[in-house]
TrEMBL record:
Belongs to the V-ATPase F subunit family. InterPro entries: ATPase_V1-cplx_f_g_su (IPR008218), ATPase_V1_fsu_sf (IPR036906). It holds the Pfam family ATP-synt_F. The keyword DNA damage does not apply. Keywords: Ion transport, Transport. GO terms for molecular function: proton-transporting ATPase activity, rotational mechanism. SUPFAM superfamilies: AtpF-like (SSF159468). This is V-type ATP synthase subunit F. The lineage of its organism: Bacteria, Bacillati, Bacillota, Bacilli, Lactobacillales.
Length: 102
């Protein structure tokens, strides 16, 4: 299984490409949905990394896949600016999914 990155940060995309992970740079909202659907149609992608802001902007679409499909595993890929101010997105996802705050 391969990894793939959908990012709004050119530095994150460049870094991942340097280690062999393919991806796409998103410049507008419509291109995210196209890229996301294209990844879902591929059977070789096991891990899909997405920038936190893109996940926040498309939370319903991302959660639909997270909760109803086994692959790809969707994880946040923090960029340089998000890494410094990391919040517990996993706890937020669990709280939305089952209504329990941790």
């Amino acid at each position: 299984m391969k990894q793939y990155l959908i990012s709004d940060n050119v530095h994150s995309l460049t870094g991942m490409k340097l280690v062999g992970v393919d991806g796409v740079l998103i410049k507008d909202q419509d291109s995210f949905e196209e890229a996301f659907q294209a990844v879902l149609e591929r059977n070789d992608i096991g891990v899909l990394m997405i920038s936190p802001q893109l996940i926040a902007d498309h939370q319903d679409l991302v959660d639909e896949v997270r909760f109803n499909r086994s692959t790809p595993l969707i994880v946040e890929m923090l960029g340089p600016s998000e890494y410094a101010s990391e919040q517990s997105s996993i706890a937020d996802t669990i709280q939305r999914a089952i209504g329990i705050s941790i």
